[in-house]
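Working notes for the structural subgroup meeting. M.R. asked for a predicted model of this chain before we commit to crystallization trials. I am recording the input and output together here so anyone reviewing the notebook later can reproduce the run.

Input as submitted:
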Amino acid sequence: MHLRLFSFLLAAMFCVPAFADSIMAQLSSQSARFRYNTNSLGQSFGNLESSVGFLYTDNSDVKNSYLADIGAFVRGESVEAPIIVSIGGRLYAGKAQDYTVYALGLGGDVLLMPESWGGFGLGAFFTIAPSVVSFGDADGLLDYGASLNFEVSPQATVLVGYQKVEVDINTNNVGTINIDKRAFFGVQIKF
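Returned structure, recorded in token form:
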């Protein structure tokens, strides 16, 4: 049931005409995260940004865990302030060790990039899914991190940061599993 809902949302995202796209790849010593973003609609209150992502980890502690996600965020930009804020939600599906994880999280991200910093910026993101919107073996999910960004060109940005993805498992009193908890290097390409 959850997999069908995830597939429907993924198909619906690609049926919407896109105005701008970007691909982000984040790599660390034991994980890889990829995300495709598209600005679907422009409204007077902000752009609707849709995304689909995938995180895979090869850490022996979590035995090849992975998470796929699909999200929708309203992004607000201000000409007066060098800050971009997005608020919305993500639907997660995957495995943490041998446990199934389904969660609907709410959160957002922020990017501070003043012109006076010469292409440098600071970014952060946070998504939380408490137990009431976590399913399968999951009893909650947190996905958060921060990064230092450098805009090489208007189309390419390099990121160095830290992210943590943790899932609370309610089966067999397992507790919290850290799917990923480390520094990363990333690249974002806009087209």
